[in-house]
Amino acid sequence: MSQTVPVPHGLPMDRDANPFDPPRALTRLRAARPVSPLVFPDGHEGWLVTGYDAVRQLMADTRFSSRQDLGVLHVPYETPGMPVPTEPSPQIPGVFIAMDPPDHTRLRRKLTGAFTVKRMKQLEEHIVEVTERQLDAMARLAPPVDLVREFALPVPSLVICELLGVPYEDRDTFQTNSAKFLVKEQTLEEKMAAYGALTTYLAELVTSKRAAPGEDILSDLARHDDLSIEELTGIAFLLLLAGHETTANMLALGAFALLEHPDQLAELRAHPDLLPDAVEELLRYLAVGDVFYRYATEDIELDGETIGKGSTVVVSLLAANHDPRRFEHPDTLDVHRKARGHLSFGHGVHQCLGQQLARVEMRAGFAGLLRRFPTLELAVPAGEVKLRTDMNIYGVHELPVTWTTETAR
Ligand code: HEM
Asked: What are the start and end residues of every segment in region (Disordered) (predicted)?
């Protein structure tokens, strides 16, 4: 493997002019050295994996531990007040995304039944109703409106609240605090304060469900005597956070991408049966949850490189999804593409538990939005849309849109 490519110092994640393409620095690195050494901002060395095959192989290999990073509380390089990790991070009870088997398996197994394709099919009609109600409310407003606030955030929040049995009226508590975790430059103190507020709220909620269970996923979990209140709280935290931030950003950034690709939007409007493929393509193309961390528990060979025991490994799902060795013309959004096999939901034992739910929400969301608002367009120049380059989940902070009122259905 070539040693001539400069080793990046810090993550080369800054976007260039086009808000959708992977950063050029990342693309160059993938072409030259898909498994590349990396120097973290504090000077300690790790690895950055950008090639499709290498990312897939890594995520399927549990010798790469997930006990490195939550993307929320930890970053694997020194932040003020935080030591450089030299061993796996301590586990937070219930937060199984940052656990390895067998702990991970024990907790995930309790939830698989709740998120199967079959369960999600049964919920589909209801999710369509939630989406349509939200679109009814939006159609009553005088444009321009912010699509994030009126549509992209409420739909997945309403759905996950209902599934988990979290009162939607409490959304200010969880939306504000979850957003605080995802700010890249947030101080550890602020993250801990947001985490504390959220878990205090959720601990009370799961305690009341254990005492008087209802008809929802958290109540079902609370019926398991072998789960402690701390574990229930951690699971609730993970599901709530993962369940609304990711899908909300896919809906908003997806709408922005379609509006910026009028030919693709027209194709989709003309052939609504393309929607399931278009959703997979948007997932591939946008990969809103891009960066994940792993920790090598032994020396491991990956794509001709030896990753030393104890190394931190950063994975870019966006770079992998845009690897020309896997997808032809990868930087082109093509609603006709068969994009299955993309890595936006990860791969291996941690592959997204909520992916079927996310698919149902996105199909209902894009179908409804395009049908009800045939003249939808941006209300500001594309260059003025505020991108979430400061957040750990990419997307847009706001998406001002408008339409000709008499065309809204
Ligand atoms: C895991 C992406 C929606 C719950 C993951 C992972 C990715 C991902 C990449 C793997 C993380 C890793 O390997 O470390 C997405 C995207 C979504 C989405 C792009 C929307 C478009 C959802 C929804 C839920 C959810 C709606 C609802 C419950 C989870 C959970 C995990 C997870 C619980 C951890 C699984 C495990 O560790 O076994 N997601 N997700 N996600 N996701 Fe999602």
From this structure: 1-23
Q: Which helix (H) or strand (E) holds 316?
A: strand 312-316
Kindly give the parts of the chain with pLDDT less than 70.
Answer: 1-4, 68-89
d(CA 367, CA 256): 15
Tokens representing 36 are 């590349």
Q: Which domain holds residue 386?
A: 24-407
* Domain contains 13: no
351 CA to centre of ligand 1 in angstroms: 7
Instruction: Determine the pLDDT at residue 189.
Output: 77
Contact 205, 221 (CB under 8 A): no
Q: Into how many domains does the chain fold?
A: 1
| This prediction's pTM | 0.95
Rounded distance between C-alpha atoms, residue 288 and residue 217, angstroms: 26
CATH code of the domain in which 31 resides: 1.10.630.10
Query: Is the separation of the CB atoms in 49 and 35 below 8 Å?
Result: yes
b vs e for 32-64, b when ≥16 Cβ sit within 10 Å of the residue's Cβ? ebbbbbbebeeebebbbbbbbbbbbbbbeeeeb
Cβ neighbors of 42 (< 8 A, separation 6 or more) are: 77, 78, 84
Nearest alpha carbon, ligand 1 atom 37: 97
Q: Which atom of ligand 1 is nearest to the CA of 250?
A: 21
Give the Cα separation of 199 and 196 in Å (integer): 5
